[in-house]
User: Fold this.
Amino acid sequence: MFVQRPDIRPATVEVLVDGAPVLVPEGASAAAAVLLAGLSAIRETPVTGAPRLPYCMMGVCFDCLAEIDGVANRQSCMVTVRPGMRIRPQHGAREAYRPEDAA
Amino acid sequence: MSLAYDLAIIGAGPAGMSGALEAAGLGLSVAVIDEQAAPGGQIFRAVEAAAADPALTGEYAREGAALARRFRAMPNIDYRPETTLWHIDIESGLLSLRGARGSGTITAERVLLATGAQERPVPIPGWTLPGVMTAGAAQILLKQAGAVPKGRTVLAGQGPLLWLLAVQLARAGAAPALLLETTPGGALRQAIGAGGLWRGRAMLAKGATLMLEARRAGMKVVRGVRSLRAEGEGAVRRLAWDGGSTSCDTLLLHEGVIPSTHITRALGLAHDWDAAQLCWRPSLDEWGASSHPRIAVAGDGGGIGGWQAAVEGGALAALDAAHRAGKLSAAERDRRAAPHRQARDNALALRPFLDRLYAPAPTVLAPADDATIVCRCEEITAGQVRQAARLGATGPNQAKAYLRTGMGPCQGRMCGTTVAALIAETRGISMEEAGALRPRAPYKPITVGELADLPAAEAV
Ligand SMILES: Cc1cc2nc3c(=O)[nH]c(=O)nc-3n(C[C@H](O)[C@@H](O)[C@H](O)COP(=O)(O)OP(=O)(O)OC[C@H]3O[C@@H](n4cnc5c(N)ncnc54)[C@H](O)[C@@H]3O)c2cc1C
Ligand code: FES
Assistant:
């Protein structure tokens, strides 16, 4: 669970996290909005359905895959929030395009 | 038509910004590509927005902000934020980009990869539980959003960054309760033998000050922690280690940083296993030139040296690019390089000490407990990798066929080195023999439409 420090970084951008409005600072990532909203999981793993939240916040682990503005499998820690952005956790086996599968 | 540049720099961290400033100053046409929304890289992430945060004082607010200002003010740099490089056609110099403003291509005579480091994966039992993150992740939340963890925060692992984060969180009013330090007793004596303490004394003093401040803020420290595991249903609740346990809401792991070699490996550049830093690094000459004539690497992506070394490395690679472009004679390049070399040597003086002191335990590379997940994407355990090694997998590239390790969305960024270390251990071979995972383009997942841009020969 993460909390804001509004005196230091005013929360001015409203986004929708799983349908609920959340105010976050400009420059925050969609993954940060999910953590600030207090969701217990951003996705469930395709293999065992285990809950995950972002692990690295810098584009390495891909544990933050979420649906953003209707597009699934976005790396939410690499997406900067915009007003009105819709961020939804994703469940199950919706797989990203995987290079090895194209081979 | 793609825009053409003398030099394309990937990464607007200390190395990339410094390289761009030097190269543009010498009259090269320069493009700088970075995934982030603003310049700074990892250390100076979001510095333009957060420099006034009292939790982030020091070199972040001073040197970091100044570097970003100079970078912004320099004309002749085509800076493209929120843009990801997902493919390089190494022979033609065609770079495929995906940006907030759509995808496209540019071409470059020379490419400088200044893509930095990632945190070393810390595969302990329970590390996939919600509430377990890297220390760097918490720092990113602080820099980018001003956010801090709530509840009982525990830091675990070792290294300068962990102490820095402890202090930054404390200054932000969220001091961690506990630091579980994994450095074994006796490491300090060994590290002192590595030397460099006198030349590195300023950095050493800074580290000691951080440790003092973190403890004054109330953080307790347990030393010599072994066999750490995170426990809980649906989220981390408890931590246990040999001889102790505690409750926990947020666990922040850190065992140092390693070069991000995803792109350099995908390009097929030569790499060496660095036995001191326990990571792969691209083989580079004194200018950062790689085994391919078009590609150079600067900063932590070429070997961990910290931001000051990255700044000097970026400048050196830019001087070499200017020489290769015919803008500088070899003699003039060498003359200008001398102060940068000197500054880099100074910045690296303490490195052997730090590498020795904070060398990760063998179990960080190859987890002892067979039930530990090592591949987070496909949920493959250490035991499954050992089994594949016994069945015939001779390295991480072969393990893919047995287990799909390295074939999930992260393409082995998290598990590649762990899988290699487990195979090396099981088969009694060296890391060099196990080899490095060879990923393919695209470096990041892309849409089918973007894939159509990929040269046909690469797409198969
Ligand atoms: C999470 C984290 C936090 C850190 N914090 C500190 C700290 O507080 N203090 C400290 O002394 N050291 C810190 N470090 C160490 C760090 O490596 C610094 O030494 C320094 O940032 C290295 O500078 P660099 O220019 O080599 O790379 P970086 O600063 O890492 O910059 C690399 C840049 O490349 C970009 N990039 C990477 N791949 C692509 C791609 N495919 N397409 C487009 N852009 C790309 C990234 O977005 C990034 O901005 C941190 C490291 C990490 C991983
Ligand atoms: S949290 Fe690791 S990739 Fe986004």
